[in-house]
Fold this sequence. Notes:
Layout: H1 2-39, H2 43-55, H3 60-76, H4 80-90, H5 98-114, H6 120-131, H7 138-154, H8 158-170, H9 176-192, H10 196-207, H11 214-230, H12 234-242, H13 252-268, H14 272-284, H15 290-304
Helix pairs in contact: 1-2, 2-3, 3-4, 3-5, 4-5, 5-6, 5-7, 6-7, 7-8, 7-9, 8-9, 9-10, 10-11, 11-12, 11-13, 12-13, 13-14, 13-15, 14-15
Amino acid sequence: MMKRTLFPLVAFTLLLGTTPVTGAASYDTAKAAAQAAYANREYESAAKLFRDALALAENGEDESEAQFMVAQSLLNARVYDAALKEYEKVLKVPGGRPVDRANAQINIGNCYSRIKKRDYAKACAAYEKALGMSGMTDALRLQALRFLGRAYYNWNKYDKARECLGRVYMDEKASAGAKGEALRYIALSLRAEKDYEGAVDIYRAILELEGISSYYESLAKYEIGRCYADMRQDEAMRMAMAKVAEVEEPVAAHVSKAWIAIGNSYLAENRFEDAIAAYQKVLDMEGASQRDVDEAREGIKRAKAGGK
């Protein structure tokens, strides 16, 4: 009798013990496959695979995580209208993670900022709502402020843009990159109002940031030159533009465009040899775009022809 009852009892015990583990593993396996597709930038496939994981979610936290990643995949696939609807679903998941809801609310704003008919009013409202939500980490709060400032800038609400971006710049927890981006848009807002001197001061503030990247260093120096060009201060413009090439690892586009600007200013003053020397810098450097190379060659041709 012992031999007859032992096998059914063991089998029944194993069945009870392994059923929930199989379910959990199924969600984890589906999520891992989706994450792999997402990491490979196969965003449409990732969206489908995260939907598979969503169907296997066993609690609110897993459901909100998977639902958020469905939306995130569609956002990266640039299917903004569809992504918007999926982010809105994250807000309605019972027992979902607060961080997923806050992140989804921020990305609702991103969708409104990127859809074909950009709606910056709705984008700003979404970012403002996100800033008041629980689950807002310091990183997400700064992200929401940055996006809010940029949306106000694109909406031509320059005072509000500067207010939001100024908060990012003053925040001790903001990275040098986040501060650099904030200052860049503050400068752009001042230039839009033709306050070129104010913009120069902001670009110089970028150069004073500790730990700023070479990108922002070369960008700031190049934009200072452009501000001087807007003010018709040619000598100051040339001095500023020449400093772009002095950056340790400058952005090639900034360097080539700086030399072209210098060449153009010399050409306008009939300083043909100086113009040719500036344009030649573009031809001698690495990384210049074909468009810039063609423009430099045309400049040399005009300079040799006496500016004609």
